[in-house]
Amino acid sequence: MEKKRSVSNILVVRGAGDLATGTIHRLCRAGFPVLALETAHPMAIRRHVAFSGAVRAGETVVEGIRAVRVASVEEARAVWDRQVVCRSQGRHREEPAGQGFCQGKDGGGPRAVSCEEDPVRDRDAELLPEVPVLVDPEGRSIEELKPFAVVDAILAKKNTGTSRAMAPLTIALGPGFTAGEDVDYVIETMRGHNLGRIISRGQALPNTGVPGIIGGFGAERVIHAPAAGILHIVRDIGETVQAGETIAVIETALDTASGQGPGKAFEQDNTGEAVPVPASITGLIRGMIPDGTPVRRGLKIADIDPRRDQVRNCTTISDKARCIAGSVLELVCAAEKKRPAKKIGCVLMAAGWSRRFREDKLLKQIGGRPLAAYAMDRLQELAGRVPEADVEVIARRPELADLARAHGLSCTVYSGGDQSDTIRQALLPADSRNWAGCMFISADQPLLTSLSMERLLSAFLREPGCIHRLSAEGVPGSPVLFPAECFPALRKLEGDQGGRAVIRQGQVPVRLCEALRAEELADVDDPDQLWEIGRMLEKIDKNG
Q1: pLDDT of residue 420 exceeding 50
Q2: Neighbours of 253 (CB within 10 A)
Q3: Has this prediction a pTM greater than 0.70?
Q4: Spacing of C-alpha 77 from chain mean position
């Protein structure tokens, strides 16, 4: 089977239950952009530590990482873009001091949890990433995103559609897959000596249907629905119960308004009863499916931990999930290391004639400094923060070249010509420096921030087969980042043609990336605009 080739760094995880959440959490902590795919009605038992809760509640937080439900791939991109700025600024997440969050009783909203309840929540200034969760059980978004890796963490005990053709690296958790055929690797999920073992040929151990032993109890600690209908919670996760105590009831009565019983798809028992669900053993409720969930008879609905002092475990990722996650991260990092290093040209265009300005506007003073100095400041910041950024300045005037070198930036002095000539000059180092793409930055945008440019670079690294444009409220502007496949077309431009001519050809998809502020796209074309932008710079400096 032919493998899909991708140089993207996106990872897609199919499933967002508690074991999948361990993997997603670890990958996010390692800095990868992750998209979690779920069903429209997830039924994770350990829902307080499952990112699938975002499907029902809109968002949920597990150990400091927020999962956010998105309606499209475009919304997922917006979540990733937000993280670029937050990580760079090192901002705290907007949570009350000393508190984390987990889902509420019905999964319909977060509740505050003190740090004593959630001891592993980070208390330092590091901002942990957000992860988008998309309802896409069929995995249709995978074709659009062309991710670097796909992890099947559905744990359905069978392959529900994952194949090696989906990404350069494919991993599956648990039984139902053959490594080397269905996917590249399988991770053992059975508790015991081989838990977390990476399998490159063959299958994981078959499902025995017998839960792992905790506190001397195995099958006894798992509770299954005694009838079909709608589950209503009586005692929830984290509460201590006695053997035989009712922890939930299953409503099996007919819906008199519609003439149909709730949970019709589950063939509910139309007995008109509220069937009690007793605790099988004395202990702590460790997991319970969401309140109001339609259930079928025999469905696993709850899990009791006989160790009544382990309440903290209800809101933290399990040892099993972390072990499996470590194996997934090992495979992803090993594959990432084998990929060729990527550089992205970041070219500051400072060789224009300023015809509308009637003099070299880039040397005009604004806020006591040459106009071009502001863009150079931001590129200096970008180069220091993003290792993939390979900055080059194309300047016509020696004074601008001196200014660039004073900023520690590589500069090429160019006598000037049409816009197409300047683009060709800018692309001269592309082959020798192995550029995967090139971002063209105008030197007359003094309000442009390095964080918005970093967003653009991160968007390109996620989807390197697209043209990426900075935008404000959906209106495209500059800078523009072209992938290497556009370089031949850019080199063929003539006269005063610019990159827009290549964009209009429609050969390569265009993605918009929102700037931090709309005014960043403003450029200087005449003295009035120079004066107006000077006032804006003063205001920004005054406000910090």
Answers
A1: yes
A2: 16
A3: yes
A4: 8
